[in-house]
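User: Sequence in, structure out. Go.
Assistant: Echoing your sequence, followed by the structure tokens.
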Amino acid sequence: MSSETGNSAIMVQRNSMLGVLLIVGVLLVLSAILFPIFRSSRTTAFNSACFANMKRTAAGMLMYAEENDGCFPGAATWMDRVEKYVPQGDGDTGSRMRCPAVGRDEYGFAMSDGLSFAALGSLKEINKQVLLFESSDLSRNAHSKEATLPNPPRHSRSTAAYADGRATSLTGGQKL
């Protein structure tokens, strides 16, 4: 009688162990299916937030120009000058003037040197003049003569804003 009790206890342990292994296997399969979906959602969220931040920053640049004789700020200090015109997020200074895919003390937006101190009224085809763009230079007040987007992009697409305040999403490595 004691051997039958011992055998049934072993059977119960085996069944419990098989149940645990089955549950672990199902969880692994589900995670393999769901993690790429979560990653895609995160990339889409970063792209949307970056686009919104770029558009707000471009609007801030236009407000700055409006109050400063129609001129954009100098490229070397553009963020410092425009910051007060861009609504901030959660109290973090500059949180709306940066790409959310970069580190906390990095920015990822740059101003085109060609529009440094430029007067809005003197610009021809402002809808084609790149004002701001995502840059591989992550420093504050980043600026460059040639607006080239990071390649590969930080998230699914890169963002640029034009002197008319319009923002657009572009593929990485594309020259503007």
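User: And one key feature?
Assistant: The longest helix spans residues 2-67.
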